[in-house]
C-alpha cells in the first residue's frame, strides 16, 4: 500500500514521498543494487501512485507477486489488455502483451522494439508492478473442500476460529431456481452444480473484508465504502431513534450556521443525537443518586429550557443495537466518529463542547456472529496486524475435531444414528448418539484411508477429552475399532 506523504525538502532537495519511516520495506535500495524492492512514485492509469517495480516475485515484499501486464482469455471471458501498450491484440499465458503478427522466427522478425517470445511478437513494456495477489479471472465453486490462503489488501480480514463456514454458493436444485415451466420437468445435470449466490440470495452480513479503500474497479469508487453516501447508501449513519427526521440536523448543523431548521429553530443541544458524530465512548455515565437504577443526566451552559441531556454512552449502545439488528444496514463501511483514548484534548460531558471535539475515521462491521467498531483507521498498520476478540455466552454451531488420520473433503449430509456413544460405566452419563457424515469427495489423498471416492465417517459427540471438557471428534479406523470410515 502507499506510504505516507513526506515533507518537502529544503534547499531544493526532494525526498522520496513514497517512503514510510514506519515500514522499512518501502525504502528504495541503493542505486548500484540489482534489487528493485522499494516504492517509487509512478504514473499508473492516469494517476500518481506509490508502486513497487518488479521483474520477478523476488523483487516484491513477502506474500506479494509480480503482476503480469495482461490476463489471457479464459473460456468465454475475453483477455484483459487494458494495461498493454497500443497495438496489443492478445495476451500470452504468462501475461505478455502480444501483437497481431501470426508468428516470428529467424526468417520473419518482429517490429523494432518488439521481442520474439515462443514464436510470438511481444510489445515492449516499461516494467511490472507488485501486487497483493494475482487477479481473479474465474468465479465459481470448488468441487470439494480445498486448502487455500487469503491475503487482504488495504483492509482487515475477519475470520473466526470457532464459527461455521460462510457458505457462498448453492445449486439450482437447492435454491429451487431450475426450469420448472414444463410439465413433469426434471432438473438437468448442471442444476446440481455449485454456483454463486445471486445478489438477493446472499446474506449481506456474510462479508469478511473491512475495506480501507475500494477494490480496483469497484462501482461507486470511494463512495462505495462509506456508510452514508447518497444515493449509494442514503441511510443516515446516526439515525435518531426518537426523531429520524431530525437526525441530520442534530448531527451536522451547528447553531449559528446556514442550513439550520426553518423558522429560526436550532438543533436541540439537550436532545438525543446532538453532534452524534463526535460522541466520546470513553465518557462513563454515573448513576442518579435520587433515582436508583437510573443514569444521571449531563448538564451544560446555554442548553435552553431543559438544561440537561441524556449521557452519550446509552445513546451509542442504542445506535449499535439499531444497525446491527437491521439486516439491510450498510455493513463493513467507514464513517467519522468522535475522539479516541489517545487524544490529548480534554473531553467534557457538557453537550455544548461536542462541536469542538476531534474526529477520527471508524469502521463498523457485523456478521451473523459478532459486531464491532474499529476506531482510528485513518492509516492502516505498516505490516500485518492481528486483533483478537473473545465471544462469551450464547450458542454456536458445533465444531468437530478433525484428526490427521481422517480426511473429509465434501460432506453432503449428516445422519443421526440410533446407538448411544457413551459407555454405561463412562462419563458423561447422558445419552449422546453417534452421528454419521456422508462424504461425497471425488478423490482423497494419502491420509484418511487412502485415495478412495466417497465414504461414511462416524462422529463421537464426546470422543475427545480436553482440559475444557469433551469435544466431538471424527473417529478414525483405530478409534472405531476397525468399523469406520466405510469407503
Tertiary shape: globular
With helices defined by DSSP (H or I, 4 residues minimum), what is the helix count?
3
Query: Count the strands?
Result: 22
Structure class: mainly beta
Which value, in Å, is the CA radius of gyration? 30 Å
Compute the separation of the termini in Å: 49 Å
Proportion of helical residues = under 10%
The pLDDT mean sits at: 76
DSSP strand (E) fraction?
15-25%
Please write the string of helix (H) and strand (E) elements: EEEEEEEEEEEHEEHEEHEEEEEEE
Largest sheet: 4 strands, antiparallel
Question: Can you tell me about this structure?
Answer:
It is a single chain. The relative contact order is 0.07. This protein has helices at residues 172-175, 247-252, 312-325; strands spanning 40-44, 47-51, 53-54, 65-66, 90-91, 97-98, 115-117, 120-122, 128-131, 155-157, 169-170, 195-196, 209-211, 298-299, 308-309, 333-337, 360-366, 371-375, 411-420, 433-439, 455-466, 469-474. By secondary structure, it is mainly beta. The protein has three helices and 22 strands. A hairpin with a 2-residue loop joins strand 7 and strand 8. It is globular and about 100 Å long. The strands form nine sheets. It has a four-stranded antiparallel sheet with strand order 19-20-21-22, with no helix packed on it. The chain starts with 39 loop residues before the first strand and ends in a 13-residue tail after the last strand.
Amino acid at each position: 500500500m502507499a506510504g505516507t506523504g513526506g515533507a518537502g525538502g529544503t534547499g531544493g532537495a526532494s525526498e522520496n514521498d513514497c517512503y514510510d519511516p514506519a515500514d522499512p520495506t518501502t525504502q528504495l535500495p541503493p542505486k548500484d543494487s540489482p534489487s528493485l524492492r522499494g516504492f517509487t512514485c509512478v504514473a499508473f492509469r492516469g494517476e500518481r501512485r506509490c508502486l513497487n517495480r518488479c521483474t520477478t516475485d523476488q523483487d516484491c515484499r513477502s506474500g506479494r507477486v509480480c503482476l503480469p501486464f495482461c490476463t489471457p482469455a479464459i473460456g468465454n471471458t475475453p483477455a484483459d489488455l487494458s494495461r498493454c501498450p497500443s497495438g496489443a491484440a492478445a495476451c500470452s499465458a504468462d501475461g505478455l502483451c502480444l501483437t497481431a503478427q501470426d508468428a516470428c522466427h529467424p526468417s520473419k522478425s518482429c517490429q523494432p522494439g518488439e521481442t520474439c517470445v515462443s514464436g510470438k511478437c511481444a510489445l515492449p513494456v516499461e516494467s511490472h508492478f507488485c501486487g497483493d495477489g494475482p487477479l481473479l479471472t474465474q468465479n465459481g465453486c470448488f468441487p470439494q473442500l480445498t486448502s487455500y490462503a487469503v491475503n487482504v489488501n488495504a483492509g482487515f480480514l475477519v475470520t473466526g476460529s470457532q464459527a461455521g463456514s460462510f457458505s457462498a454458493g448453492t445449486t439450482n436444485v437447492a435454491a429451487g431456481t431450475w426450469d420448472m415451466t414444463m410439465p413433469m420437468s426434471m432438473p438437468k445435470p448442471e442444476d446440481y452444480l455449485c454456483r454463486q449466490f445471486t445478489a438477493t440470495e446472499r446474506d449481506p452480513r456474510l462479508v469478511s473484508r473491512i475495506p480501507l479503500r475500494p477494490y480496483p474497479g469497484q462501482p461507486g469508487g470511494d463512495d462505495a465504502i462509506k456508510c452514508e453516501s447518497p444515493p449509494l447508501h442514503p441511510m443516515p449513519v446516526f439515525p435518531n431513534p426518537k426523531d429520524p427526521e431530525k437526525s441530520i440536523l442534530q448531527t451536522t448543523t451547528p447553531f449559528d450556521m446556514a442550513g439550520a431548521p426553518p423558522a429560526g429553530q436550532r438543533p436541540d443541544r439537550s436532545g438525543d443525537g446532538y453532534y452524534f458524530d463526535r460522541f466520546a465512548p470513553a465518557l462513563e455515565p454515573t448513576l442518579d443518586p435520587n433515582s436508583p437504577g437510573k443514569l444521571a443526566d449531563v448538564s451544560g451552559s446555554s442548553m435552553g429550557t431543559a438544561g440537561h441531556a441524556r449521557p452519550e454512552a446509552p445513546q451509542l449502545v442504542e445506535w449499535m443495537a439499531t444497525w446491527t439488528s437491521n439486516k439491510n444496514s450498510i455493513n463493513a463501511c467507514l464513517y467519522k466518529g468522535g475522539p479516541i483514548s489517545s487524544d490529548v484534548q480534554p473531553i467534557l460531558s457538557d453537550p455544548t463542547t461536542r462541536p469542538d471535539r476531534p474526529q477520527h475515521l471508524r469502521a463498523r462491521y457485523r456478521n451473523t456472529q459478532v459486531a464491532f467498531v474499529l476506531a482510528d483507521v485513518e492509516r492502516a498498520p505498516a505490516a500485518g496486524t492481528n486483533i483478537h476478540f473473545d465471544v462469551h455466552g450464547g450458542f454456536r454451531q458445533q465444531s468437530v475435531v478433525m484428526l490427521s488420520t481422517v480426511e473429509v473433503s465434501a460432506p453432503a449430509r449428516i445422519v443421526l444414528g440410533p446407538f448411544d456413544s457413551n459407555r454405561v460405566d463412562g462419563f458423561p452419563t447422558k445419552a449422546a448418539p453417534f452421528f454419521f457424515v456422508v462424504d461425497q469427495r471425488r478423490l482423497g489423498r494419502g491420509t484418511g484411508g487412502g485415495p478412495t471416492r466417497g465414504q461414511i465417517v462416524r462422529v463421537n459427540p464426546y470422543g475427545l477429552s480436553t482440559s475444557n471438557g469433551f469435544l466431538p471428534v471424527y473417529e478414525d479406523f483405530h478409534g472405531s475399532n476397525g468399523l469406520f470410515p466405510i469407503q
